[in-house]
Specification:
361 residues; mainly alpha; hpI Integrase, Chain A; three-stranded antiparallel beta sheet; two-stranded antiparallel sheet; disordered N terminus
């Protein structure tokens, strides 16, 4: 018989022992204090004995089994993503769910987890990221028959609409370019006008660039410091280069530092571009000098590119091809940027005028 009662963190530590998450670890990984910041459920010693016979009955072992599955196989999850998930488990999921029996986890408990995190000061955005591996782990065990509940409606957290994401206007982006060191302007300009992910940008090689045709073939990604011959969606795509970016890249080819991998955008030393160092030393200071929001991320250049494509009249199918999205719903988030009838009518008028000015064919 398993009995439950709500307890404070101190009661949980008294029964289960102190948290294994150090203050230094959580401060650096999630900027949250080290102690489990949640109300907990205390079980009897009999529950400890019961779960010892079947390690897959508790969430800690279930997490380990799911992680091992996702780290292997024909489509393993990226090492950088696994590192993020490990951090989320150590600081949040492990302290709250780790010793729970899988059969004890239900929708109400997940709801309590959300409320506890938000009341402790964890942002809604951070919570949204933390529940991604939690949801995936529980769904995997449900499909395998080791978890009794279908979690389809437990995590109904829609993505924010595109117009709530950070995007730059053309004028704002020119200010950002002018604030960047000369060496890094080709990197950022290329990212903004092609919409490549940072991992794809870091792994791009000159053999993937066809300057004569004005096309870039996106077929590899940098996972930490390892080039993998597939993208995030495990498929390749081709992206066209606007004329001014094609000219910029042609000039950059003669100035690009040599590298062992023949990278298009390495560091000045020829090494692979290091994301955190680039953000800290180059990207964020340039945002400040340009008078822009310093919270603007490198990935927001991808959102910016999508918004520019939409306002240029790109269709949902066009966006899916250029940005490598496999789900139509992802592209539809950006179509919502054209949320006024006047905007749509203006695009139709522009198309009509262009067609008529071209004359009969």
């Amino acid at each position: 018989m398993v009995t439950k009662e709500t307890s404070s963190v101190g009661m949980w530590n008294q029964v289960r022992g102190p948290s294994t998450v150090s203050a230094k670890t959580c401060a650096s990984e999630s900027r949250q204090p080290s102690r489990a910041p949640f109300s907990r459920v205390v079980r009897t010693r009999q529950a400890e004995d019961d779960r010892a016979g079947n390690p897959l009955l508790n969430f800690s072992a279930a997490w380990s089994a799911w992680r091992a599955h996702r780290a292997s196989g024909s489509r393993p999850i990226a090492n950088s993503t696994l590192a993020d998930y490990d951090s989320m488990y150590r600081c949040f999921l492990g302290p709250f769910f780790g010793d729970l029996l899988l059969a004890e986890i239900d929708a109400e408990m997940v709801g309590d987890f959300q409320l506890d995190m938000l009341s402790y000061g964890v942002s809604a955005v951070r919570y949204g990221k933390v529940v991604v591996p939690l949801r995936a782990c529980l769904r995997w065990h449900f499909r395998n028959g080791t978890f009794p509940h279908d979690t389809t409606f437990w995590f109904d957290k829609p993505a924010p609409p595109a117009d709530e994401r950070r995007v730059l206007s053309f004028e704002e982006f020119e200010r950002l370019l002018n604030a960047l060191p000369d060496f890094y302007r080709p990197h950022v300009a290329f990212a903004a006008y092609t919409g490549l992910r940072l991992g794809e940008l870091r792994a791009l090689c000159w053999q993937d660039v066809d300057l004569d045709r004005g096309i870039v073939h996106v077929r590899r990604v940098m996972d930490l410091d390892t080039i993998r011959m597939y993208t995030k969606t495990k498929s390749s795509r081709s992206v066209g280069l606007p004329g001014h970016i094609r000219e910029l890249l042609t000039a950059w080819q003669g100035e690009c530092p040599a590298s062992d991998q023949n990278l298009v955008f390495p560091q000045s030393s020829g090494r692979v571009l290091e994301p955190s160092d680039f953000r800290k030393r180059v990207f964020r200071p340039a945002l400040v000098r340009a008078g822009l929001n310093p919270a603007f991320r490198i990935h927001d250049l991808r959102h910016t590119a999508a918004s520019w494509y939409v306002h240029a009249g790109a269709s949902v199918v066009d966006l899916m091809r250029v940005f490598g999205w496999s789900q139509m719903q992802t592209a539809m988030r950006y179509i919502h940027m054209l949320d006024t009838p006047a905007t749509l009518a203006a695009l139709l008028s522009e198309s009509r005028e262009t067609s008529l000015s071209a004359g009969p064919h």
